[in-house]
Design goal:
With 86 residues, this protein is an all-alpha fold. GO terms for molecular function: DNA binding.
Length: 86
């Protein structure tokens, strides 16, 4: 884990958060991991396959990848409020 963290320029505790706390790395780190380990982004995010039939989902996914961490946090909060089961 320490070599992986060093290769990304982050602390081991950050990698631990990704692994154990369900925290998703910042978009720029996801892109770096994807390139370094030749793994598609949708696989890193746990999306089995992006179907060409679902263009809206793919478009939204691509848009989210362009957001910085602050914007992602805002989007997450908004989506959770809108789609909560209350």
């Amino acid at each position: 884990m320490s070599e992986f963290a060093e290769s990304l320029g982050v602390a081991k505790s950050r990698v631990n958060m990704w692994e154990n706390n369900g925290v998703i790395p910042r978009p720029e780190l996801l892109v770096l991991i994807s390139k370094e380990y030749k793994t598609p982004l949708h696989i890193l995010l746990g999306i089995e396959e992006i179907s060409s039939d679902n263009k809206k989902q793919n478009s939204l996914f691509q848009f989210l990848l362009t957001l910085d961490n602050n914007q992602l946090e805002k989007a997450d909060k908004i989506l959770r409020i809108i789609f909560s089961d209350d």
